Amino acid sequence: MIDLLEMESEHMERTFLMVKPDGVQRGLIGRIISRFEDKGFTLVACKVVQVTENQAKIHYAEHDGKDFFLNLVNFITSGPVVAMVWEGDDIIALSRVVNGKTNVNEAQPGSIRGDFAAHTPKNLIHGSDSPESSKREIANFFEDHELVKYDKTISSWI
Ligand code: UDP
After folding, report:
1. Residue 6: phi, psi to the nearest 5?
2. Which of 59, 63, 126, 145 is catalytic?
3. SS3 at position 124
4. Residue nearest to atom 17 of ligand 1 (CA)
5. Looking at residue 1, what is its pLDDT?
6. Who is most buried in 80, 86, 93, 153, counting CB within 10 A?
7. Could you report the per-residue pLDDT of 132-156, keeping only the tens digit for each?
8. ipTM, two decimals
9. Where are the domains of the chain?
10. d(Cα 118, Cα 74) in Å, to the nearest integer?
11. CA 35/CA 1 separation, integer angstroms
């Protein structure tokens, strides 16, 4: 019989999540972090950062050239953010479900954007959309030694 409590996960991933300036200003840091803790994910790095223009352009490089690019850079540098690395099974896709759709008008109730955001692009939270983006975004904000590897005894029950 397979021992579910001892199974090693092949789906373990890391993702970069960021509480955007609107989330910090609105006092939603704790409630946003709680959503990911409640889901059973593990926080491996976290810091409050004033994003530089250069960092913002690297972060949003895939949107360079689009009409909303400069607004995006201005918004993300408009105040401090909370930059985080989280770990969990299939976390890249699952955390985007927790975040809700980019367009807040389409974000489901129960998601962070569906419950708290009212105007796109002020949609409170960023989450990586692929393993490649996750690596690039983590490296843009963190040194390797800032990521802490640890186990939680509850993990096998999640
Ligand atoms: N955004 C926007 N207009 C658009 C698409 C995106 O203002 O048409 C903003 C929005 O704040 C979004 C961010 O750009 O969160 C990054 O876009 P992406 O497609 O990566 O969405 P996300 O991954 O944040 O849901």
Report:
1. -105, 0
2. 126
3. coil
4. 102
5. 47
6. 86
7. 999 999 999 999 999 999 999 898 8
8. 0.93
9. 12-152
10. 19
11. 34
11 catalytically annotated: no
Cβ of 29 below 6 Å from ligand 1: no
For 12-152, the fitting CATH number among 3.30.110.10, 3.20.20.70, 3.40.50.2300, 3.30.70.141 is 3.30.70.141
Q: Which of 67, 113, 100, 82 is nearest to 16 (CA)?
A: 82
For ligand 1, whether the C-beta of 42 sits within 6 Å is no
Distance of CA 158 to CAs 7, 8, 39, 41, 88, Å?
12, 13, 9, 9, 10
Mutational test site, ligand 1, from 32, 77, 102, max ligand atoms within 8 Å of CB: 102
35 is in an annotated binding site: no
